[in-house]
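Weekly modeling sync, notes
Attendees: S.R. (lead), two postdocs, one rotation student

Agenda item 3: backlog of single-chain predictions. S.R. asked that every request posted to the team notebook include the full sequence so nobody has to chase files. The rotation student volunteered to paste the first one in as an example of the format we agreed on. Action items at the bottom.

Example entry:
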Amino acid sequence: MLYLKVNASSSYCLIGFFLFVFFSHLEEKTQWEHPKSGKRKRVAGDLPYGWEQETDENGQVYFVDHINKRTTYLDPRLAFTVEENPVKPTTRQKYDGNSTAMEILQGCDMSGKVVIVTGANSGIGFETAKSFALHGAYVILACRNMSRASDAVQHILAEWHKAKVEAMTLDLASLHSVQHFAEAFKSKNVPLHILICNAAVFALPWSLTEDDLESTFQVNYLGNFYLVQLLQDVLCRSSPARVVMVSSESHRFTDIKDSSGKLDFSLLSPSKKEYWAMLAYNRSKLCNILFSNELNRRLSPHGVTSNAVHPGTMMYSSLHRNWWVYTLLFTLARPFTKSMLKENLFSPSSWIFKCSSQIAANRGHSKKVDTKVTRT
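Predicted structure, as returned to the notebook:
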């Protein structure tokens, strides 16, 4: 018999140089199946060319490689083992690109959880807020347009009249509005378990906000950054809690460094002459990822985790509404993208749930952590 080690607690031997039997030294039993994979293995075929099987003076089998002039007690056919009765796997991953938000939260009781979703009056923001509300969470729709936000609330209540959902004013293009929203939320004296920064603009013509910053940069990144800053003490007190930054794969197609490799702050809020809408969007999404990573590093010891997600193609959202060229391109691309069925129009929101529905298990401290960006 030829014995080989599998791990510290088990080994296997080759029976007749055809089948493997596995020994569990801890449980003192044998089995034909591999202890980890559950598969059966056997050696098949003849010895490779130039090899010969011999027996030493102690009766132990060894193998001679006449070509390379060497001997070994390992059967060279071990490199070519085959499975006994191989079967095709019958399982698939739990969630995929066609999973809907409701499928992700199926059987999940969100009662007692408080959720803020920015930009929740339409698109994946609305689907996210609705799914949380229908599973018992108290959901706040933080929106700029209160008329559309109120309509969204009524749509959710029409599906379940006991849903705990309300709309609050939040305009990320105004830092004063962000501050007012944070103060209004804190006055409710409720915890905050999930903050989803979903609101964004795309393909805006160049313009400045009331804070004299380029609009895409402030709405997509700086407004969200300021919102998290103002609410981080509530998040820490509510731990385990989670922040989700909705970013985009388009962050890969830009940079925020100058030719010397240093961070160039002028690229974040460019002048009209240097502005290109697509590039501004990409940079804002890159900032979201960098912020999320640093936020997670600083707050995770206090029970608050942060994730940045790419929600998928937004062909069926209103993200392209600001320029007719993008509207045309999105329309032409729709037949070649996923999520064509009505029930899957907003399946990208399921990826948001993968980051937000499983709240961290460990409770953190309520110590406030400084997450301000400093220039170096």
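Discussion: group reviewed the output briefly. The longest strand covers residues 2-7.
Action items: rotation student to repeat for the remaining queue; S.R. to check formatting next week.
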